[in-house]
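Sequence, please.
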């Protein structure tokens, strides 16, 4: 049973992606709160570099 967001106190549904709003695949380290799909698009703008 899903609760309305006003009653939700903890869990995955409370944290959402800042870009698209999904709660799946969220990157919480460094207080990013961006899902992994959006992170691939925004990583350069946020300051991450790609190393090979």
């Amino acid at each position: 049973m899903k609760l309305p967001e006003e009653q939700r106190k903890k869990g995955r549904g409370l944290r959402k992606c800042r870009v698209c709003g999904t709660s799946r695949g969220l990157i919480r380290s460094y207080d990013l709160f961006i899902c992994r799909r959006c992170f691939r698009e925004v990583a350069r703008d946020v300051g991450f570099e790609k190393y090979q």
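The mean pLDDT is 87.
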